[in-house]
Write a structure and sequence with these properties.
Layout: H1 2-10, H2 34-46, H3 50-53, H4 57-83, E1 88-89, H5 91-102, H6 109-121, H7 132-135, H8 137-146, H9 159-162, H10 165-172, H11 176-195, H12 203-227, H13 247-252, H14 259-264, H15 280-289, E2 294-295, H16 302-311, H17 319-325
Helix pairs in contact: 2-12, 4-5, 4-6, 4-12, 8-12, 11-12
């Protein structure tokens, strides 16, 4: 018993330490590794610190800012780059993207990509580890993360990423970047308390809002795609699963809510296939491409639009709008 507790505690800092064999039948495994779940429990409990530290307009704004920039790291890098390789970048920038994504405290980039690729392979089938169709809403939203079988990373599924030792390092020691992020947020609050007292903040207040509250909201925003995007919304394409398009979730996740689009054609960098489908992550990636840091962004193929017309009736849009802006994603209104 003592050895198992010690092993679980060490795995907080070294995710690959005496890693359990990858379970191939994870959809039916309901074991909960409570020791490994403690960081997530602490993350949520930390939000209660607001009772003691209070709030200020600056810290609320900081929490929102950190939410957006880290959501972009999850959607643009963890998802569209590491999971689907929808654009290209340099090895150095790839490492920076991975470290940026880890500030979201959603574990390592290889673990994230491994599970997401498996989701697409078995979407809403028994092999899908977070399908509300198979195990219900709460399991799809958060329960699967507590499952002991889902903690290891199957590096054979992400060989294209596992060949980079620096990415394996970040994936293995997946708590390193979150700890540095938390310390940085606290230090920022302390600095502002001394040098900008008019902002009415301090280290503990910044830690609660910029780390605990912002990260918890980010966590549930991301998880809403696993759960709500397979329950609420419209289906433009026949994808063989319950993936749906949802404008509200797209706003919450910077464009990930166009989930049915994504499941129909997962290798395009743009998930909002039409200009009226707001996809903030794509806009930011497009802007990033102008700097030369990323390139070869994969667009929406012609056959996708042809299939959209045959699978579903087109949306009714006033003729004047169509004449001015068109309908396709590559025609962006001024």
């Amino acid at each position: 018993m003592k050895k198992s507790i010690f092993t679980a505690l060490v795995r907080w800092f070294d995710a690959d330490y005496q890693a359990d064999p990858v379970c191939k039948d994870k959809a039916f495994d309901q074991r909960v590794d409570w020791a490994r779940c403690l960081p997530f429990i602490i993350l949520h409990l930390g939000c209660l610190g607001v009772i003691w530290v209070g709030w200020s307009w600056f810290t609320v704004g900081a929490a929102l800012f950190f939410y957006v920039v880290r959501m972009f790291a999850v959607t643009g890098f963890y998802h569209r780059y590491f999971s689907h390789r929808t654009f290209q970048t340099s090895r150095w920038t790839q490492f920076l993207f991975a470290a940026w994504g880890q500030t979201s405290i959603q574990r390592g980039p290889l673990w994230w990509a491994y599970h997401h690729r498996g989701h697409h392979q078995h979407s809403d089938e028994p092999g899908d580890v977070h399908s509300p169709k198979q195990r219900g809403f709460w399991w799809a939203h958060i329960g699967w993360i507590t499952n002991k079988a889902n903690f290891p990373t199957d590096y054979s599924v992400v060989r294209d990423l596992a060949k980079y030792p620096e990415l394996v390092f970040l994936n293995r020691f997946d708590s390193l970047v979150p700890i540095l992020y938390g310390l940085s947020v606290f230090a920022l609050g302390d600095f502002l308390q001394v040098f900008s007292p008019g902002l009415h903040t301090n280290g503990w207040q910044m830690l609660v809002w910029g780390f605990f509250i912002s990260t918890t909201l980010l966590f549930h925003g991301t998880c809403s795609i696993n759960s709500l995007s397979h329950i609420f919304g419209n289906q433009r394409f026949e994808t063989g699963d319950d993936s749906r398009n949802n404008l509200l979730l797209s706003l919450v996740t910077l464009g990930e809510g166009w989930h049915n689009n994504h499941h129909f054609h997962m290798t395009t960098v743009r998930q909002g296939f039409y200009w009226w489908e707001i996809d903030i992550t794509y806009y930011l990636l497009k802007a990033l491409s102008w700097t030369g840091l990323i390139w070869n962004l994969r667009g929406v193929p012609e056959h996708v639009y042809e299939q959209a017309q045959s699978d579903r009736e087109p949306l009714i849009i006033p003729t004047t709008i169509l004449q001015r802006y068109g309908t396709r994603a590559d025609i962006t209104p001024p």
